[in-house]
């Protein structure tokens, strides 16, 4: 994309300077707007041509039967799929008697800009119809970060050098026809016309459609209101049908005259509220938005983003592409989580239908770390969603014969949606990932109320899961057998180190929470005796280690397996899962994505520096990065172990995952975890940021390419700025009470207005590490510089 001739590098925007239909679907993902509740893909205003039309409401899905050739006990019976809801962003245009369709006539110019400070997508183009009529079209689109249900479009048409008869049709469209997906036909069926009409309304400039999903029974209401300005003679008419509501605006414009249509769109959905209640809800949201009008919304959006960047911006000097990419990533991470409010943050956010719109552990381990230090209120909301889904997780645990709660591997509504149990049901680490995120959030914010009201219950139920899933052997050692860790090229393994260390953290955090809130814990039937059993399990946890190789085993016996034959694996055979049977991947040493290496980061205190370096080198030679969740973590540990050039290359890969479409699937939606991972690579990698209890530690070191890296963080009511050059790091407390940070192990006291600087120790040159053949970092390999 960015390497595509039509993309320009700019620090505060993503600019497409000409329309390239060959990357249309990718650009729709890159230009998607969302606030975590409503998401609009960057489809062209007129609806066509499109790659994949997409308007999403977080939590709205349809059910479909899950296919099994050989069914088994406990297999989920139905799957959930995000659906394309009523599209409120369509504005069709007729120029004299020809439809404005960029596949016809001549496109004289076309530019789209995603403005990361204003939070809008702007489009300007000039088109000459097949009959020779010229018009300029400008549109600005936003999904409000301040008014949760609102999307808005300001659309302008201006003839060039002639009189033109113009008709603008502003529409709400339900059950849009979607391109063939090529995926599971049963899921595809659920996606064709998923909405049953319930109400349609049009009067004056107002439109409304209410529908209901057929199987999941969710009611979706979308309404629009308009302000039309232009030359004196304008006619308007509105009409509605079951799947279409339309305002038609017609006028004759002279050259230079402008017809402007401002469209406000309100969205709502519910599984319980009645039809009249939903109609009222979206009408009320429109009335609230109309108070401010388009300009007011635009100002609020800017103010909201100014505030975000003031606490979250990352500056990279010396690398324009990474600078652009990290802001692009932060913007999309904010969009994914800002207003999700007790709903999941899906792997693709609300930018596409990839992964059926499901949320995974990506949220807790990749997205929430970023939001914890930049927009913590969104983290509390995301974790409250997990708490709200505890009933389903308890039911699932009981079904599996376990205690506590088994959170789903992939889901929209909290119920397990994975039809492949070796990498679904068995991936129990998701429980510990959620617990980890809770602990991180509470430590970074000091939010005691949350710790008591949400944290405690989730920690207790996840600790119970571990205690019942694992067992003490005859020597008393605690094992968790038959689970799948993050590396999906190993499954049903015993004592996966990542899982065991994360479970240990989970058990200890739960024990502490019960001891801290004994009264509240009683409500969940937890007491000192139970918490003592969690501590025993945590302390006796088996952490497999190979003393001959002096490395940890990803899971028991892993280093004994045959190594994958990388020399005979061709470059075009990656990702391996599409070219080799799982049975063979599972019994060989080959790693899909950071697993033990992720433990080196998330449970770093469990390893000494030498172990970290040896483990990293060992697993580096086996890791093929067939998941976009890997590069950023490899960047973090490469930086920690002094492999700064390698860390840089992995950072670039994580950062450019979508802007360069490195995995060739950006069309289905953005890789939100990888975008978040760019921040992790920079802040935890080159900044060396770690949290030890309630103290922040930094061990900064920059790669050669960067002359400066600066970032901001929120921590326990303070705003902190860190600025790193090749020679020194300085720490400034921008607001809040004095605090202590550590710089390369040494304490530094920070007081407001008194920056503290410390030298950055130099990094001795290390011999390069080996990667599997053909699997060197992509961006590093491909980039020309
Ligand atoms: C990865 C998982 C991840 C999922 C969604 C898979 O390819 O292996 O770890 O959760 O994608 O991003």
Automatic annotation (TrEMBL):
The keyword Hydrolase applies. Pfam families: Glyco_hydro_65C (PF03633), Glyco_hydro_65m (PF03632), Glyco_hydro_65N (PF03636). Coiled coil: none annotated. Residues 774-785 have a biased composition (Basic residues). Residues 327-679 form the Glycoside hydrolase family 65 central catalytic domain. Residues 761-770 have a biased composition (Pro residues). It comes from the Bacteria. Residues 690-750 form the Glycoside hydrolase family 65 C-terminal domain. Residues 746-785 are annotated as: Disordered. Keywords: Glycosidase, Hydrolase. Residues 16-270 form the Glycoside hydrolase family 65 N-terminal domain. The keyword 4Fe-4S does not apply. GO terms for molecular function: hydrolase activity. Belongs to the glycosyl hydrolase 65 family. PANTHER family: GLYCOSYL HYDROLASE-RELATED, GLYCOSYL TRANSFERASE. This is Glycoside hydrolase family 65 protein. The lineage of its organism: Bacteria, Bacillati, Actinomycetota, Actinomycetes, Kitasatosporales.
